[in-house]
Fold this sequence. Notes:
Layout: E1 7-8, E2 11-19, E3 24-30, E4 36-43, H1 50-64, E5 75-80, E6 84-90, H2 97-104, H3 109-128, E7 141-143, E8 152-154, H4 184-187, H5 195-210, H6 220-229, H7 245-254, H8 266-276, H9 278-283, H10 289-293, H11 296-304, H12 308-320
Antiparallel strand pairs: 1-2, 2-3, 3-4, 4-6, 5-6, 7-8
Helix pairs in contact: 3-5, 3-8, 7-8, 7-12, 8-12
Amino acid sequence: xxxxxxxxxxxxxxxxxxxxxxxxxxxxxxxxxxxxVAIKLRPRTHGQHENILASRFTESARLHYQFCHPNIxxxxxxxxxxxxxxxxxxYLQGGTLxxxxxxxxLLSLDEVxxxxxxxxxxxxxxxxxxxxxxxxxxxxxxxxNAQELSTVRIADFDVSKNPYHSPDLTEKGAHVGTLCxxxxxxxxxxxxxxxxxxxxxxxxxxxxxxxxLPYASISMPAIFSHFLDQKPFPxxxxxxxxxxxxxxxVIEQALMINPERRIPSAASFAMLLLALSESTRHRYSRVRxxxxxxxxNWLKIALSEAPKPxxxxxxxxxxxxxxxxx
Length: 326
């Protein structure tokens, strides 16, 4: 383990701010411009799995380099050394969503919509270039400023994948992701699809609004049973009386066990969250209507089958967003 004041490339280490099974994260400072950065460092090993571990680290950095979006953590550079591999990332001093929820327990509906729109927009950017995160959860969602939710960033691309170009580095029989947030189809080792990230994001938003996960029991047998039985999740309004029928309906559509019935794109999810919150519509200036229009057929069909209170709440808001055919 490296110590404070040691150098990694042109960066002077300050202290450890996080650690995992194979890597540690250090707060560091550039000797050139004195900017603070976070450095994720993986010591090289001499074990039989070193080649696969090194390849995973390299592939994660390769995918991360492709992103250019305000809601995705910025990767400055990678460093290869005979003793370690490292990636230099923007330092996000606002901490994680997990830490925010420990302090706050619940977020307001407007806050959740604002958070969800920014995260969905970041996911849409990833999906546009055929990269799937595969591990969206509160620990992998960070803030530049915890007082301003719009500074949210998606981080940690250790298990991200381009299903068309990434090498297969997953151990046979292993599932990818975190049990409580992973989409059902990821357990079947199906080819990764963007809608798995939509499911995971919906679980995160459910937790932000209700203060709990939607599963009755947090165990692998209980979650598998839920998937196999295709049980609907409890409505959010059971846990938070501020939740409207339309809000219930949107989260239900994102949490469909059958991926073919789920909200089909992160852009569609973002647009529905915008429709749910007037304050978010006023604050959010990056509505990508053109990319949304390609997903409108799903929305028209889904809303035509929705209960009337859902239609009554969403149709006027969608018209304000430019969808005047509702």
